């Protein structure tokens, strides 16, 4: 029955644009990831969620006792815990998506040879890309919902607009997952994969997560504003605190471009690697 359904879907795609790279069955990749999650990888997901919580407790309610209110907009002051909480949510969304779309993909690509088997079926490279990225999105959304629940429990959600932080976190996850998977298709060794951590850690520390960008010199501020995590932090911090302006549009467009770029190059690379 499953085989018949797969054949029917594949036949329905015949003659349509992009039939060579997309069969319309990306959800099967998500189902496979879910089965793996149920059997073992749930431990990795759970431990990944704890990191931002520990940062919130240590810095927000620890160091935060030594710091006064922080101005996030003209005349709008918040506690230090409320200042870093949206940044930790953005970072959590980034980490949850990026590790699924990099290390997870790397092992499937270079060691388990999973994608060779997938692409030997009716699945196309865009199915694989959307399926893997879709699972990373679900993980990022799970982190966002769980973290927002904790923020609500400790009184750091002060406006109903803060719920918009969840779809924003999913958008951030989508952008990082798409680009992360595209980059991973070029990686050939563990040494090269470690470059990802070398990039992520400084970006986490210097993207306005723990202090306002204004403390940096102008040239460094300009560089930080190019980094994707800064856009994620600025986006979630604004909506979490109910601060809306036209300045949010560039942040959203930044991640839309990341998504398009990542999907295009991931599909192209998988096609070159396995469908020559």
Question: Please, could you describe this protein's structure?
Answer:
With 276 residues, the chain is mostly helical. The chain has one domain. Helices cover 71% and strands 3% of the residues. The protein has 10 helices and 2 strands; from the N terminus they run H-H-E-E-H-H-H-H-H-H-H-H. The chain has helices at 2-13, 27-60, 80-110, 114-119, 125-153, 165-184, 190-205, 218-224, 228-240, 248-274, and strands at residues 70-73, 76-78. Strand 1 and strand 2 (76-78) form a beta hairpin. 40% of the residues are buried. The model is unreliable at 5-15 (pLDDT under 50).
Q: Main sheet? A: 2 strands, antiparallel
Tell me the series of helices and strands, N- to C-terminal.
HHEEHHHHHHHH
Q: What amount of the residues lies in strands?
A: under 5%
Taken together, the total number of domains comes to 1
The gist of it:
The chain has 276 residues and is mainly α. It is built from ten helices and two strands, in the order H-H-E-E-H-H-H-H-H-H-H-H. It has one domain.
């Amino acid at each position: 029955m499953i085989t018949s359904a797969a054949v029917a879907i594949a036949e329905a795609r015949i003659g349509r644009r992009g039939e060579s790279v997309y069969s319309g069955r990306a959800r099967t990749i998500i189902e496979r990831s879910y089965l793996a999650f149920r059997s073992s990888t749930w431990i990795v997901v759970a431990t990944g969620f704890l990191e931002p919580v520990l940062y919130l407790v240590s810095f927000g309610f620890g160091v935060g006792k030594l710091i006064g209110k922080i101005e996030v907009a003209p005349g709008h002051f918040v506690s230090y815990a409320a200042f870093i909480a949206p940044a930790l949510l953005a970072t959590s969304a980034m980490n949850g998506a990026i590790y699924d779309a990099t290390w997870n993909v790397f092992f499937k690509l270079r060691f388990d040879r999973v994608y060779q088997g997938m692409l030997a079926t009716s699945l196309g490279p865009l199915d694989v890309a959307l399926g893997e990225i879709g699972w990373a999105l679900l993980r990022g959304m799970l982190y966002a919902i769980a973290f927002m629940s904790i923020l609500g429990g400790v009184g750091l959600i002060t406006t109903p607009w803060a719920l918009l932080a969840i779809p924003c976190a999913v958008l951030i996850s989508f952008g990082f997952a798409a680009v992360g998977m595209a980059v991973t298709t070029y990686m050939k060794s563990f040494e090269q994969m470690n470059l990802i951590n070398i990039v992520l850690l400084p970006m986490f520390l210097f993207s306005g997560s723990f202090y306002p960008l204004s403390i940096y010199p102008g040239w460094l501020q300009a560089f930080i504003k190019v980094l994707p995590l800064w856009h994620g932090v600025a986006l979630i911090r604004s909506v979490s605190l109910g601060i809306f302006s036209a300045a949010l549009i560039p942040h959203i467009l930044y991640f839309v471009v990341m998504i398009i770029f990542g999907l295009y190059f991931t599909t192209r690379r998988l096609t070159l690697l396995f469908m020559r």
